[in-house]
Specification:
Elements: H1 5-13, E1 21-22, E2 25-33, E3 40-46, E4 48-50, E5 53-57, H2 68-75, E6 78-83, E7 86-94, H3 100-110, H4 113-119, E8 127-132
Antiparallel strand pairs: 1-2, 2-3, 2-6, 4-5, 5-8, 6-7, 7-8
């Protein structure tokens, strides 16, 4: 199945008809602004709804470094999100220590490999909350 640039393109062209469902879970498209380049970057990410917000995980497969999209949203937390055919602006923040355990459990239920990724790295893998802007 797809992931990466082709995944993004198919998702955008089909309003998520292709690409929303991926490997037994669901993905959204997150667009951040490059902290150095100022360019827009779109990344497909596994997500879960949490009330009116959406959760994603900055795992990078357990790499010792945070993914670029996470570094970008730390510099500029205003992002664009696409879930199927719905597009909206959101503000991103890292889950607070008191929020994270419940959110981590939600995310590992849909992608158990997150627990494995955490064992591969000393960094704490963040859960990111995407809150829709009105």
């Amino acid at each position: 199945m797809l992931f990466g640039k082709e995944h993004v393109q198919r998702y955008q062209e089909t309003d998520g008809a292709e690409g929303h469902e991926w490997n037994g879970t669901t993905t959204l498209l997150l667009t951040t602004t490059g902290r150095k380049s100022g360019k827009k970057y779109t990344t497909p990410l596994i997500y879960q709804r949490h009330g009116d917000s959406f959760l994603v995980v900055a795992s990078k497969g357990g790499d010792p470094r945070h993914p670029e999209w996470y570094l970008n949203l730390q510099a500029d937390p205003e992002v664009e999100v696409q879930v199927k055919d719905e597009k909206f602006r959101a503000r991103a923040h890292t889950a607070l220590p008191e929020e994270k355990p419940e959110m981590w459990r939600m995310m590992t239920r849909v992608w158990p490999d997150y627990d494995t990724y955490q064992t591969k790295t000393d960094r704490e893998i963040p859960v990111v909350v995407l809150e829709r802007l009105s």
